[in-house]
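Structure ticket #2291
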Amino acid sequence: MTLICGVDEAGRGPLAGPVYAAAVILDPTRPITGLKDSKKLGAARRETLAEAIKANALAWAVAWADEEEIDRLNILHASMLAMRRAVLALQPAAREALIDGNRCPDLPIPARAIVRGDALEPCISAASILAKTERDKVLRELADKYPVYGFERHAGYPTAAHLAALERYGPCPAHRKTFGPVQKILQKQLI
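Resolution: structure written out below.
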């Protein structure tokens, strides 16, 4: 059996929180019904599928790059780092990787980028679901720690409510300081 993993990330666009990635090797003898792009699933369904993936996959791993790494590397390179970490954490190790998108992280195994792969390849769909559910958990924790920003409602994305809170309270340690709206607030604070 060829051990092929699907890889996807969650959280490239938000102004706050880490970027997450997951890698999943599905078990062909234990199919999981309902796998699709995590963005096309409701939160409860994603959670149910995440548990099924963890219970039935041959291997799965979740990794991330934190806000400091995002600010230091940029979001693209931080996403690639998170994907690399997830793939390298798989046990058993994958022999090939299918990556959602148009770029591949630097990996010691063959990798192929598939645009809209989270809608086309079940193993990438599974990775999409794990990355999203794990990132959502962290954003709920950030919401408890920094309640004025409403992270539990917008997951760090630049909604009107988030931008208003950012303007009113300034950034918190979870904000990505190199992202335009956050950088703009930081520059205002220096004046």
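Closing remark: The chain has a mean pLDDT of 95.
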